[in-house]
Amino acid sequence: RQGDRLKTSLPSRVIKICGLREYSHFQDAASTGADLLGMVFVHGVRREVQPEVAKEIVSRLKKDFAHSSIPKQQNPSFVGLFCDQPSSEVNRIVEYVGLDWVQLCGEETVDYWKSIDCPIFKVLHVPPVEDSLLRRMSVLESLECSLNEVERSGVLAILDRSSEHQPGGTGRQFDWTLAKELSDKQHRFLLAGGLTPTNLKNAIEAVVPFGVDVSSGVETNQIKDSGKIREFVQIARDTFSNL
C-alpha cells in the first residue's frame, strides 16, 4: 500500500522544507513551489509543534489551496516528524492533524513501519568517515544495505548527518561523495544535512538526488527566514530542471 502511494504522490524531483512552525512560513514554502512541508512532533526539541497548532495551520492551508488557482496535484503535502514514539501516537496525530506523510528519525524497525497508516520517509543517519578508506567502505556498505531494506518496504529514505544530540536539523553536512555513489547505483533518497541556498546548486549537481530537504539552512538566528525559504526553493527548482 505504501509503495503504491509513494509512486503516485510525489513529483520526479522533490523539495522539502522542514521544521516549519509559523503559518506565514508554510505559505512562503508553498507559494514558491515546495512539494513537502514538514513539522516536528518530537517531544522536547526546539522546533516541536503541538498537534492542536498543527491541525489549525494545516486546515487553514488546505482551505487556501482549495481556493487558489494552483492545480490540486501541485499542492504540497504535509509531513510529520517523529522519533521512536509509539505507533499509536503517530497514527493518532496523523489523523488528527491531517498529515500526508510520516518521517521517522529514530531506530524504528521494518515491523514498526508496517504499523503506520500513511507513506513513510525513513531517515538514515550518515556518520563521519574522516580520512579512513576502510571506515568509508564500511559506512557505504551499511548505507546501501539500509537503503535496500527501505526500498523493499516501499519507504523513501532521507540521508542526513548523524548526531548524538538530536535526530535531525543539525545544519551539518556529511560526505556527499557517499551519496553520489548511492545515487549512481539508482538509489532514490532525499539529501539533507547542511544544505543552504549557497551550496544547494553544487549539492544537487554533484549528487543528483531524488530530492532535497532543509531546515536549519533556511533559518536566521534559529528562526525560519522567508527570504531564504523562497531562495532555496527557487534554486532547487532551477537546478533540478537543468539536470
Strand order of the largest sheet: 1-2-3-4-5-6-7-8
Query: What structural class do the secondary elements suggest?
Result: alpha/beta
Mean pLDDT: 91
Pick out the low-confidence regions.
none
How many angstroms does the end-to-end distance come to?
31 Å
Biggest beta-sheet profile: 8 strands, parallel, barrel
Principal-axes geometry comes out as: globular
Summarize the helix and strand pattern as letters: HEHEHEHEHEHEHEHEEEH
Topology (elements, then pairings):
Elements: H1 2-9, E1 14-17, H2 23-32, E2 36-40, H3 51-66, E3 77-82, H4 87-97, E4 101-104, H5 110-114, E5 120-126, H6 133-152, E6 156-161, H7 176-184, E7 189-191, H8 200-207, E8 211-214, E9 219-220, E10 223-224, H9 226-241
Parallel strand pairs: 1-2, 1-8, 2-3, 3-4, 4-5, 5-6, 6-7, 7-8
Antiparallel strand pairs: 9-10
Task: Name the descriptors.
globular, 243 residues, 10 strands, two-stranded antiparallel ribbon, eight-stranded parallel beta barrel, single chain
Explain this structure.
By secondary structure, the protein is of the alpha/beta class. It has nine helices and ten strands. Helix 2 runs parallel beside helix 9 (226-241). The two termini are 31 Å apart. The model has no long low-confidence stretch (mean pLDDT 91).
